[in-house]
Fold:
Amino acid sequence: MTDASNGPTATPPETIRMYGAAWCPDCRRAKTFFGEQRIHYEYIDIEQHPEAITDVERINNGMRSIPTILFPDGTILVEPSDDELAAKLELHLEASQGFYDIIIIGSGPAGLTAGIYTSREGLSTLVIEKSGVGGQVGLTRQMDNFPGFDEGVNGADLANRLRRQAERFGVEILQAQKVVGLDDDGAYRIVRTANGREYCANAVLLATGSHYRRLGVRGESKLIGINVHFCATCDAPFYKGKSVYVFGGGNSGFQESLHICQFADRVTILEYDAEPHASLALQQKVHDCAAIEILTNQEVRELLVTPDRKLAGVRIVDRLTGEERIDHPDGVFVLTGMEPNSEPFKDRVETNQWGFIVTDETLETSMEGVFAAGDVRAGSTKQAASAAGEGATAALMMRQYLAQLVKV
Structure:
């Protein structure tokens, strides 16, 4: 990484500006980091905008180094690592102590609600989050079914409210840190992060939620972050005046399509089954939007990729007629369901056949002192309100668990 802030001057942008290219792996990594942390930025592809090459060369003393990232305060970072980006954004990267009463992995409604309850009880609580605080809720444009918000609430606003409430009660939040392992040492639980740190606690709550399922077709992995997206809130603005395909006819696909059509001229929802699975209310909203088309019985076979890693087309088979065709949207959003974020814990706690964590009636897993709540837990309803409820329940169960330890 090079800090070019002392090089040739550049007018500070009003928002973060990144110069990059589709073929650049460091650019894709930086875009992924900003997306995970929900950092808004302006992206300029130097291949699509050749005039921007002059800016890159001026900033980097004649070199075409990308990504080149300009910040509103005038700072310029060139080819930064994730840790360097996190430091620049002043994310909290290291916990203030090594031991806590409670460690919560995940900062969605389950994790933050649990933290609110445990901290109010006077229990020292650390929340560890690898992505944006708030979990999937923070990526939801509008929530109309979360209790207490009679006119609905923006997901990012709800996430920020939960965070502020948790911090008000003393919850410490560690950001941009991936948990890679879980162990025990007698009565204590040990949580290991990707940067080599270890944190110890009496009890641990796994509230890591779930993530968007991929299509698993040829070409998909090469286009992620370029023309394949999983977050409409993050990436829909890149498709102003363009055509977008949404894969998935469930609630997520329909809800996000309503957001995407505020930017794209045309949105097409492709559903594998004969009928969409979204709620009737969402189906009516989509039906009322002239910019959205729904196609059922559609099987996506392949995403075609150009030599310079751009979307060349989508190979689709109509499951009723058997007809194969190639369509040419400008971008695609994959919203086909969720998979649990349980991989780091599978060797220590019991999971079901789909990878969701199994718990007993107290929400404790097969590993003593380790609990689970929210979307990562087997049997959860995958709803934000129920995740918050499970977080509160898990907090009370962990308090009882700690009380038993004291008696022993």
